[in-house]
Amino acid sequence: MREPSMLVRESAVEQLEERQNDWADSNDEKSNTQLRVLIIGYGLQCVMHMFCVCVEYRKRSNRIQISPYSMEDQYLESGSQRFCIVLFGINVFFVVFYVALACVAGIAGCCCFHCIIAVLYAVAKHLLLSC
What we know:
- The chain has helices at residues 4-66, 71-111, 113-130.
- The chain is mostly helical.
- The protein has one domain (4-130).
- Helix 1 (4-66) packs across helix 3.
- The two termini are 25 Å apart.
- Keywords: Membrane, Transmembrane, Transmembrane helix.
- The chain crosses the membrane at residues 35-55, 106-124.
């Protein structure tokens, strides 16, 4: 026969594992959806940027064949350059942000894993004692 304290520990571990599995399952769906939205949004931004670059390339190649720069062409070119710089800045921001986020998540997962398990165990223990 097992001791009563051992039975309590085993049931606590089982309940903790069940809660962790339930939490992981519900969390995966939400994070997958958010990740898909971010990837699709970033992809659309990249497609829009490629479209703008192609349009600008065609304008410049046609302009070189037709005539030298006019005042209107210079104004349009400066606006197009500003737009490309803004898109480039947004791309750089997202790349830096997601690399930093991945690093923080990796460090947190490695360094705080024991703390996370301890907190989950304490919550499970508290819930068992309150029942």
